[in-house]
Amino acid sequence: MQKPVSISTTRRKKFTIPVDKFLPFLIPIIVVLLWQVSSSLGWLSSSVLPSPIAVFQDGVKLTLSGELPKNLSISLYRATVGLLIGGGIGFLLGFINGMSNTSRLLFDSSIQMFRNIPHLALIPLIILWLGINESAKISLVAIGTMFPVYINTFHGIRSVDPDLIEMGKSYDLTKKQLFFKIIFPAALPQILVGIRYALGVMWTTLIVAETISASSGIGYMANNAEDFVDMETVVLCIVVYAVLGKISDLIAKSFESLLLEWQNTGRSNA
Amino acid sequence: MNNTMISIKNINKTYNNLTALHDVNLDINQGEFIALVGMSGGGKSTLLRLIAGLEQPTAGSVTIDQSDTKTLMRVMFQEDRLLPWMSVLDNLSFGSKDKNTKAHAQELLELVELGDYADHYPTQLSGGQKQRVALARALMSHPKILLLDEPLGALDALTRRKMQDLILDICQKQNLTTILVTHDVEEAARMADRIIVMKDSTNSYEEDCPKNRNAGQIGIVADRVLGEILNEKPLEVKTA
After folding, report:
1. Could you tell me the membrane topology recorded for this protein (chain A) (predicted)?
2. pTM (2 decimals)?
3. For B139, nearest residue in chain A (alpha carbons)
């Protein structure tokens, strides 16, 4: 039994590196190939789903005409500003409530109550208050992203090992040092989880907001194309959202591996 | 030599009507190595935490001699309490950019035989190595008093023995006043100048240990102290 097992592991080792890099792309590539073949052979009517090549050509056309870059940048702008405002407020509230008991007693239960309202249910109210201009979309994204950052910052700070805080105090750290050397780094993994979650909320909120009430942005582009039964552009917008979501997730992940380097140091190289 | 460094007077400590310490009186001399032994719940850790100022007594007082400059106390805990996001060197200097601090930290790492590990993270070290880093960290600010709260409890027997020798050596060379809390009577008999048995919330028994003791003497002292803790009266039978 022992011998064949050891042989197969040594064999596999030789091929691990290229296979590991290639494997995640395998399913998307097969899906796109099947999709293209079905379209070319006429199994899939272009009124149901246009071929990948048609979508790609549409993308090139809209890029050259400047329409895609314009809408993409306005969507990115709304997403980023909304996240910065919402995430900033969420972090600040989470920080204050995590550090101060009085503040926690005063604010936390109200925030938790507000959190349970689905933020997309606020769309009618926000349109009535702010109209359909930029501030409406940005506030929706801000409200949506605020809570995941708040909750994770709050819990991250509350669950810092009290033994480490006691050590810091008995080793004469100042309050500022205690926060920057112990509390913040200890809470950081949890805070980053909140930010990553907020990125997902950010895109879904923006899609809905732009589809319902906008005159620009990727969501508007999709909605507009729907009115003209322009299937290529509708599918293109969906693909763009998928790519944007993936990119923001990659950015969040690289932040994690950069800031949490210490978590990846196993005992292997001891 | 015989000047009092720590003076404990009529200390009482209660937690929600539960008595942890009752009328403890104890004087500890400068440079003395004290071991507090006893069963769990006997009050030895509570007494150490009161001396360290981590908790306040319900009644009574702890006085630390402040005559020579600023008397500094450092605690070494049962768990290493190292910060996992800092390298070993930064755990000593708390990330200070000061060159002298870093150099001093490196010196102390050499002292605990971990000079090559400055850039490692705590997760890359063994349990014994982590406690050596914690010991080096305790020595960073040139303390006069070292409080050890069962720091070797989680280590295997061989590592434990090496750590005992290292701590003893450092305490003697730096003339530290040391208080060691331990449940291991033999450890106390090996290391301490004076063993204090904590039983029923007070210091019920004291034993002075002979200087330059050999293994046999350590065994005798340990057996006598153990008998005292466990209330076994015919001590001579144990030592025979």
Report:
1. Multi-pass membrane protein
2. 0.80
3. A171
